[in-house]
């Protein structure tokens, strides 16, 4: 199946992504787009220096970014921080995502990956962001990668599974399309671009290819899969460009936090600044938002 996929027209994909990035929207639509983007944010902290106190503060911001503002979609943390986040998010409706499966490298035995996943779910995570074994994928061991995703999906129980492709390490757009279809076939609820831990993270052409993949998968199977670009998306302007791409490629049905997310740590601050600008007519000072 994977080798039967059509090749990606690199020039065409890059030109279409660039063209969609030039679309402009009206001011009234911009306000709606900013609030939608806020609702799509997976507010993320994945640092070795994370503490329960930092995670609780991030969860408070996720629940109420500012007055009269919608909450974000989820908070994403390491498994060790899940208990603190679960307590802080209880009753909020904000999802709790945890990276797992030897994030970010994925270089661990399957038993370790499954234990990592089960522990995060048991501690309160209702979404798991797993990483594929890029080394196995690049070696052509597609069955191994597929079977690992199937096993992790089973270990998730009722938790949703986002499969991180780490597109910056896959080499070319054909592999991005191939990995997208492999992950969907193995049971992914979302396909995600990147860990944010390698220099090449989310890009418009890569996200376009993944959106085309979920569109075509739905046409073939009737099952909608979500897409999550992560890493490097920092401004409201960029976020709105991605929303235009979602609408024009997968369709308006994907313009919901159930099917599209932004993996980000700093994007929310710019969205809040631009939201205040639309409301007041001027930019607030640098202390308007918290530094995460």
- Overall outline: globular
Regions with little confidence, pLDDT below 50 for 5+ residues: none
Beta content: 5-15%
Number of domains: 1
CATH topology-level fold name = TIM Barrel
How many helices does DSSP assign? Answer: 11
C-alpha termini separation: 43 Å
CATH class: Alpha Beta
Q: Gyration radius, to the nearest Å? A: 18 Å
Q: Can you identify the CATH superfamily?
A: Aldolase class I
Strand order of the largest sheet: 7-6-5-4-3-2-1-8
What does the oligomeric state look like here? single chain
The biggest beta sheet is recorded as:
8 strands, parallel
Structural class from helices and strands? alpha/beta
Give a brief description.
The protein has 292 residues and is of the alpha/beta class. The chain has helices at residues 10-20, 27-39, 52-63, 82-89, 110-123, 134-138, 142-156, 173-185, 204-221, 236-249, 267-280; strands spanning 41-44, 74-77, 95-99, 127-131, 160-164, 190-192, 226-228, 262-264. It starts with 9 loop residues before the first helix and ends in a 12-residue tail after the last helix.
